[in-house]
Amino acid sequence: MNVLKPEYQLETFFEKVAGAQKRALLLDYDGTLAPFTPNRNEALPYPGVKEILQKLVDSGPTRVILITGRWIRDLVELLDLERLPEIWGSHGWEKLTPDGRYEIGRLEEGPLQGLAEADEWIESEGLAARAEPKPASLAIHWRGLQPREIEQLRRKIEDRLSPLAKRRGLNLHEFDGGIELRIPGRDKGYAVTTVLDEMGKDTAAAYLGDDYTDEDAFVAIRRRGLSVLVRKEFRPTEADIWLVPPEELLDFLKRWLQATSPDH
Fold it and tell me: Where are its TM segments located (predicted)?
C-alpha cells in the first residue's frame, strides 16, 4: 500500500468507517476486482474477491455499489453472486438496484444514431469480434494485439470515428485496452456524486478503480471519501492511495468487512 497524499492514512480512515452511521463502498470491476483478460467475457474476479464481496453485500451495514463501463447484463453473469450489490453500468447511464429495479437515463436520438453508424462501419471492417456494444457507447478492444497492430488500429478508428463523433455529438475516449465512442453527459463521477448526494455528508465512503475512466470518480469523491488506485503498475492519478492487487486489494476489503462487523 502506498499513500499518495500524506493526509490520508488507512488506520484513521477505517476508524471512521467503523464509527459511521452510513457507509458506501464504490467499486470498479475490470482491472480492479478482476484482472484484465484478452477475452473480456472471461474476466472473473481475483480469487477470494467474490467471497468477500458476497459477505459485504449480505452483512448489510455497507451500501456496496459497482460502477462500471460494462453493460450491466454482462457483468451480472461474471459476478455470479447469490445476492447482487447495486450496479451502475455503462459509465453511469444504467442502474440496477439489489431488489431488481432497472433504470436507464434518457438517450438522445442523434447520438444513438451515431452509435448505430459506428457499429455498421465496425462490421464492414471485420472488427465485430473486437467490438462491445452497450446502451450508451461502443467500445473496441485491442488487448492482446502487438504494439504496432494497436497503433494501426487506433489510427484507423480515430480517422473514421472522430468526424462521426463530432457530427453526432459523441465523445471518443481511450481506455486501458481499447477506445470507446460514448454518449456524453454521464460518467463514473456522475454515479459517485449521485450516490453520495443521496446518502449525505456524514457517509464514510471509498471508491476503488484502476483506469483513466475512474479518474472522474476520484475527482468526484474528493473531500467526501477515500479514492484508491488499484493496479499492478503505478500511473499518475488523482487517487489518495495506491493498492497492488490482488493481495493489497483483498486486505482492504477484509479490513472494511472487519470494521463494519457487529463484533468490531
Answer: none
Instruction: Report the topology of domain 2-104+186-260.
Output: Rossmann fold (3.40.50)
Q: Are 5 and 45 in contact (CB under 8 A)?
A: no
Strand partners, 140: 131, 179
Predicted local distance difference test score (pLDDT) of residue 9: 80
Cα(72)–Cα(86) distance, integer angstroms: 10
Q: For 160-211, what is each residue's pLDDT tens digit?
A: 999 999 999 999 999 989 999 999 999 999 999 999 999 998 999 999 999 9
Contact 22, 204 (CB under 8 A): yes
Query: Residue 38: what pLDDT?
Result: 85
| Coil/strand/helix, residue 85 | coil
CATH 3.30.70.1020 fits 109-182, yes or no: yes
Q: Three cell numbers at 165?
A: 463523433
60 torsion bin: left (phi>0), alpha (psi -120 to 50), beta (else): left
pTM score above 0.90: yes
Cell of 106: 434518457
Q: How far apart are the first and last CA of the chain?
A: 23
Say how far apart CA 162 and CA 262 lie, in whole Å: 53
Residues pairing with 226 in the sheet? 206
